[in-house]
Specification:
Strand content: 35-45%
CATH topology of the largest domain: Virus Head Decoration Protein, Chain: A
CATH class of the largest domain: Mainly Beta
CATH superfamily of the largest domain: Head decoration protein D
Mean pLDDT: 75
CATH architecture of the largest domain: Beta Barrel
Distance between the termini: 137 Å
Helix content: under 10%
Shape: rod-shaped
Structural class: mainly beta
Number of domains: 4
Largest sheet: 10 strands, mixed
Length: about 425
């Protein structure tokens, strides 16, 4: 087919005549051309169109697509960016930015490679890299993990399950699984994980927080903490302590146990009350057990609760049970109810009291019939739950106290009336 394309003549600056296509005629010509040829230009190795570049392929929907159609040994490098200098002042070879101009910049003059060895993306560090010669590789979807390694050594591996393994390529045994080198003793010991603080002050150091949500709508809070702190404010003194803290409802975490630099363990701060240590099993002590209070007691059943300081006797109405004393010189005396024994034996129960049988304990005493002096032997009295001074009997000129009735010796005096004094228990 023959097209008659209208033209017009114009005079150039050199005075020459030139034939120029009219606009309408050019439009008709464009319609008659092959659309594919009009879009992409270049050869089989490089095609461009409207800001898109295709290397190794004729078309692409991406801004840049690089394809290696030949494959085989020596043809695995699809795209390589090589820095022109080792000068740290230059820009990095590749910068990745978001649409608003901010994003992530790959620093340290790295190059970028796509490999055919089962990895989707690999980054090799070069001069000035933060980690000497690091390798960062994103594994394919089959393995479902992100790998960071140097050579054949795996540094970090993140799995699609949300778990993270450090120092191993194996599937993490927990959300965070950290593997370190074999530990040596003494000064050669190496930390697997370190939590540090850059501040210098007494009580400052690194720590770990354990927390979560306390309701479906709540945000994450701390439930407990472990801290390693500087024990003093002395310069160049690295003595440290390990603190364990828990959090009460609506309060900040509070310290409840500390291991000092001297190896001593302190449970609960001064002034706290209640049972602070429960051991389900045996305890072996090679040293001494020191207690603030000075009596030994045991849990004993009762028919009804009895207050501390009460003198008790064996209850004739029930086996292995005690009740408050009610007659003088009772040979069934079993001890005194103790408020804070230094050592308690047996198991606590709802209807049990702590009965002291030895040591120093406060005792209710009755001095209405005779004053009590330091060193007097005490026995049960007619006053319920009270002790009184023992009066010896004369046997052929020898004064003797009735056997089986003695509670102990008075450590404090009471001139008259009723009161509470400290008694050294020694049941006889």
């Amino acid at each position: 087919m023959r097209l008659n394309i209208p033209t017009h003549t114009r005079i150039t600056r050199q005075g020459r005549a030139a034939r120029v296509l009219t606009v309408a005629a050019f439009s008709l010509l464009a319609v008659g051309l092959d659309t594919a040829v009009a879009q992409w230009t270049g050869d089989a190795n490089l095609q461009t169109f409207q800001g898109k570049v295709a290397i190794g392929t004729t078309t692409t929907a991406s801004k840049l697509e690089v394809v290696n159609p030949t494959g085989g040994a020596g043809n695995g490098t699809y795209l390589q960016v090589t820095g022109s200098t080792a000068d740290n002042s230059n820009y990095p070879d590749i910068v990745l930015r978001g649409g608003n101009g901010v994003g992530y910049s790959i620093t340290g003059y790295p190059s970028m490679k796509a490999t055919n060895a089962g990895y989707a993306l690999a980054l090799w560090g070069g001069y000035g890299a933060l980690i000497p010669n690091p390798t960062v590789a994103l594994l394919d979807s089959g393995s479902g993990s992100f790998l960071v390694s140097t050579g054949s050594t795996t540094m970090i591996r993140a799995w699609s399950s949300g778990s993270l393994a450090i120092g191993t390529a194996a599937t993490p045994a927990a959300v965070l699984d950290v593997h370190g080198a074999s530990q040596a003793s003494g000064s050669a010991r190496r930390n697997v994980v370190a939590f540090d603080s850059t501040a210098f002050a007494q009580g400052v150091g690194g720590g770990i927080s354990f927390g979560g949500n306390y309701s479906a709508a709540s945000s994450t809070v701390d439930f407990a903490n472990i801290w390693g702190i500087k024990e003093n404010a002395t310069v160049n003194d690295n003595a440290g302590a390990l603190l364990f803290a828990t959090q009460a409802n609506g309060a900040s975490p509070s310290e409840h146990m500390r291991i000092g630099s001297n190896g001593l363990v302190t449970i609960a701060p001064a002034g706290s009350t209640g049972t602070r240590l429960t051991v389900n099993g045996d305890i072996n002590v090679t040293g001494n057990i020191n207690a603030k209070y000075q009596d030994v007691a045991e849990w004993v059943p009762v028919a009804a609760m009895i207050p501390a300081g009460t003198v008790v006797v064996l209850d004739p109405s029930a086996e292995n049970q005690v009740t408050a004393s009610s007659e003088p010189y009772s040979t069934a005396v079993a001890g005194v109810v103790s408020d804070h024994p230094g050592l308690v034996l047996g198991e606590e129960a709802e209807k049990k009291v702590k009965v002291a049988t030895t040591g120093r304990v406060l005792v209710n005493v009755d001095a209405t019939k005779a004053p009590i002096r330091i060193g007097d032997l005490l026995v049960t009295s007619a006053e319920k739950g009270f002790a009184m001074r023992s009066e010896p009997v004369d046997l052929g000129g020898i004064k003797m106290h009735r056997p089986g009735t003695i509670i102990g010796k008075a450590l404090q005096p009471l001139d008259s009336g009723h009161g509470e004094i400290l008694v050294l228990l020694s049941l006889q």
